[in-house]
Amino acid sequence: MVAPLGVASSPASPAKTRQEPGTALSGEAQNLGSSPEKMNVESASVTNWTAQPRIEDFPLLSSCISEYLAHVRANFSRKTLDIYALALKTFIAFAGDIPVGTVNAHVIDRFKVCRIESVSIATVNLQLRVIKSFFNCLKRWEIVAMNPCDTVRQIRGNEISPVFLTTEELQHLLKTLEKHWLLPIVVFAAMTGARLGEVLNLTWADIDLPRRLVCIRSSSSYRVKGGKVRTVPLNQTVLEVLGSLPRRDGLVFRGVHGGHACANHVSRTFRHAVRAAGLDRRVHFHSLRHGFASHLVQKGVSLYQVQKLLGHASPRVTEVYSHLQGTQMHEVVNMIDLV
């Protein structure tokens, strides 16, 4: 268990020169401020919380990461836990198992420069967000006083539009999947914008056929991203697919052998189907969610409404589809046309 930094009841220790990871203090640096007379410890009348902690008072990165991942495991989905664990494992492999108090903006910047040489900008930025979240938690736990990521900028890159299928391409794909066990899963995802995990963990109790609604929520075995419940309307296409499925207690969609479908297997099977249909090889299962949002925006649905349907916590995430509002923008500027 990581203990939050406390200040000992004994007089404040002499300040030490900060030691950068991977460096050693010189003899002169170690002797700086070692004179009690210079420190005037007896005459100091400072409250405990203002005392400067020593480097050796800070817990190691490995200890903090272990407790932080336990916190993530209890509050977020398994997929989120895996992403955070990989990012922090990569960071500690670079920085070493050093006291958390020695991690500063310079260390984070060096990590950023090192990572961009081997992975994409998107991956580096994702890992930087994870590290920032980690230190925000340590700050809230009062283990560190500052977040070293606060002054570190993410890498700016060219905006990449999400890949999705056109209406014609989706119809072509569905024809190739006729009588395939994957067909109802693909139709439901494409018509509701639900994530793969949300689709595979959906139960009949979550579906209200008379009101044409589906409630997407967490269960004992699955946690919805962000933990928030959302309700999505069902169109006629989805209702017909659901009506063709056997009504049994439990899961709505099942795997090829009738059990719980494996997300990785569904994803791989979908990619094979896309290639067999001669479609863009970049398309993956999550592209169905992108297509749901993209087609709605192109038909004039507001980004706010799309945000609610997708369950995005922040409108900034939904803004990736804003470039598709071209036709709407023409209508907006025509409102003040002088001709």
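Next protein, fold it too.
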Amino acid sequence: MRHGRVIVFSCGLTALQACGAIPTPTPRVARLCSASSAPADSLLHDSLSVDQRAEVRTVVPLTYPEGLRQEGIQGIVVLHVFVSPRGVVDSAVVVTAAERGFVSPALYEARNTTYWPACRGSQPVRYQALLPISFTLRH
């Protein structure tokens, strides 16, 4: 069962997904670079060292674990994600999880979501951010 939630990056970027039905977000401003551009460098960047932050391109619907849903358990999983210059997640590491059962669906969503890459100048760069994923039941 899918439930609405908000993804919020440490850089302030947000993407809302309600029941997995929101269409692919489009960039709010013109992109300075694209995933097809050559990477500027091999360094790892955060929101303070880029001209344009990574933005959500496509989101995989979040699946709420059935057992936790039936028990009425809610919580947040915070992931440290690393987005490649191509806009795909290279890796995701669990920082904290309210419940062990939320980890697997959170990692699946994070690893399968694609992004418009972060840019430094006109070149895409590897980017890191904290990604809280909220599992919230609707009543």
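About the second fold: Helices lie at 66-71, 103-112.
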